[in-house]
Sequence to fold (949 residues):
Amino acid sequence: MRRLSWFNTTSLTLGFAFLYLPMIILVIYSFNASKLVTVWAGFSTKWYGTLFQNEAFLDAAWVTIRVAVMASTLATILGTIAAYVLVRSGRFWGRTLFSGMIYAPLVMPEVITGLSLLLLFIGIGLDRGILTIVLAHTTFAMCYVSVVVSSRLVSFDQSLEEAAQDLGCTRLESFFFVTLPIILPAVLSGWLLAFTLSLDDLVIASFASGPSSTTLPIKIFSAVRLGVSPEINALSTIMIAIVTIGVIVASISTKRAAVRQQREEKMAERSAE
Amino acid sequence: MRRYFLISIPYLWLVGLFLVPFAIVIKISLSDTVLSIPPYAPTLDFSNGWAGIVKFFDGLDFETFEFLASDDLYWKAYLSSLKIAFIATAMTLAVGYPVAYGMTRAAPEWRPTLMMLVILPFWTSFLIRVYAWMGILGQEGLINQLLLWLGFISEPLTILNTPTAVYIGIVYTYLPFMILPIYSALEKLDDTLLEAAEDLGCSRLGAFWLVTWPLSRNGIIAGSFLVFIPTLGEFVIPSLLGGSQTLMIGKVLWEEFFSNRDWPVASAVAVILLLILIIPIVLFQRNEQKQREAEG
Amino acid sequence: MAQVAVPKSVFAPWDDPSKAPLIQFKNVTKRFGDFVAIDNLTIDIYEREFFALLGPSGCGKTTMMRMLAGFERPTEGQILLGGQDIDATPPNLRSVNMMFQSYALFPHLSVWENIAFGLRRQKLPKDQIDERVNEMLRLTRLSKFARRKPHQISGGQRQRVALARSLARAPKLLLLDEPLGALDKKLRQETQFELMDIQEKTATTFVIVTHDQEEAMTVASRVAVMGEGLMAQVDTPERIYEAPNSVYVADFIGDVNIIEGRATQTGDQVNITWAEGQPDIIGNSPKTTFGNGDKIHFAIRPEKVSISAEQPTDTPNAFQGTILDIAYLGNISTYYVKMPSGQTIKAQTANTRRLSRRSFTWEDKVWVSFTTTAGVCLKD
Fold:
């Protein structure tokens, strides 16, 4: 029997207000006609217009998206293999080192990761550009993918893999025909996580990028260092809108699928002969 | 045998792109700054054979570390970062715990929505969320406008470019990382334990303090580490909200590297930061392991 | 469902010297670290048997099954299938299939696809696969549910899908891991006879693992009672029940009275001194010889113990005691009779008369009796 005391209601309201007001304010200001961002001068969408004409921003956005797609796909493959190995293989030589390397980037400050990767690239003479950013992003994103996928694998019923082998699959076949289709939602959400992290990353990209490969976060950062800017407000609003729609759609569809699954199970039990 | 082939792919990747870079950082922290490309010496030159390798190791020294120890800036920055990280973590806990607690007390139909509301900021760009505060805390920002308009103050407050802004920024951006582990720990709590406590004579507050709080400890620890460790080396927030007043080691590292072009010093700063972080990282991993084992 | 009487007495390949066994375990030991799961086991299983591995948790029966399937390998010894050592053969290449305890149905595939899964791995032509799947669906009466997914059918139906899937490849050997555990009692009894039916029809060798002795006794042609990695006794259900070879087996199957005492044997007859002030039990031991004064366990089933108010005169084994407790189970009543020397003997009779007309009640002095051949004399 749960009761929502006034204390709880207040903390929830204040907490969520704190989380959301700054973003809402940002969205409102993006429609501010005035160039002085914080002085309201009427409703206008002109900053969205100037944003879409800003070549530098559009180029950076394109670079960012390409990098994110490549890095997240690569990170998903590597991270899934790593998760499978960690969850299914018992002891193997160097296991502690491996799991240490997988989990460390999750809490490592980005400046350290970024610095170390840049020094590596210089050391082996690799020119900084899109490739180096992809390599850098893949490295830290695969750790997040590995966490997501391994938490799914831990609760995966191993007897399904054994059944597949019993019916004629090699171990590799049983992974592709049985395990992967079933853990696919986790793999996809790992991909999405890696994609978001790559899209959003500033520090590591700053270290790993070259003069011709500026990413959007780098562009945004250099712009806002000088102060608030209406174009950035517009850009922020677009990004917030995309994420919001995505999260809402995802929540609704998972909820619907869960409800439908439950209903089907109930119907099956009732109609048992 | 095929199993080892599979393991080796991510393994080698991580060794090459995670472990080796660290070795390089250590090596460069032991090198000297020179005006050349790359801006450090000595460089490992295999063409000179064994003599070259010996000369290489000869050229390494702890000079940079001595420099770090002698110059005020660095150890002040470390201390300042530690202080800020501790205080910010505590503040995030103070804000995050009631929210997580409130979520568990809400009706079950509401929980998925509340969960979604917590996760949404997490998926939104970190940079943008920090940027949002610039418009709110500035001299002509929203808060100053509001307070001036309400007549509470006669002159705009300086909030931006002070440590206060940094605290606000850290709490704001890391709040979901604190709420989620605490929420999941509280969720697992059995309500009947609280009823038993009250049955045995506790007040509502007493039951919370003696039963709920200790049992949510795992969530608190996890959340605190998830905030403390990255905050220690945080760069974006002190850079955008902290100004020159706020000294944090992440910013120092960045400036040493990009502005001063002093790679050995930047590397040395990184090495020491890592050494400081080893203890909390190991503790965090141990705690996670213990939790995973407890859950069976 | 009508009960089908299977003439088991005709089928006994283990007694036939001309029959070669399908499965042979030769001195198989399996260790997990220090723990010995299977201890130097040797057993032959013949074609078309319905062989039950019966025992408590941890006795090694599941390990045996997993070794046959290929998911575990013996530490020592050999396992032969059709005369061939299968140690090096991985599970996907053995002509052995397994029905898992949790059914392990692939949730992302329909019933049809689940059954077809093994056939697809054999790369059979499409029409052959279609024909075989439909045959399996008919055999398990699931044709109506072919398009459904596992979560859209009931527990009993899922069990049949698991069975159909495991039979699709017509394996030489089918392993069933506690297949009826998740079903309620009535469904379980019906399914037991279905299983026996299907086994006969498809002429497959079944090896079933169960901890439910009723199930083993009902379906199996032979039962292997296991304990601590060893096979205590391997025999037909009747012989296991009527002629257990040890206290462990006697106690494991059904209800039994075990009376300890000292033996004195002359010929086949054994005199057992079991209690002070009580006459000896007269027992029969044609196969085992007991030295004078040896420790002996006399095992007798409660339904073989008669209970009467007057001292019976037709058997020397008659002892007087007091009724301690009565367990009424509808069709039978079990009387717990306490002897003056302290032991409790269970006597079981059918309730041929209604409750109100019962002859005995608590605290009554009664005589328990049994014939000299009703019990089994066991060393341990």
About this structure: The helical segments of chain C are 61-69, 111-121, 126-139, 155-167, 185-202, 213-219, 237-242, 247-252.
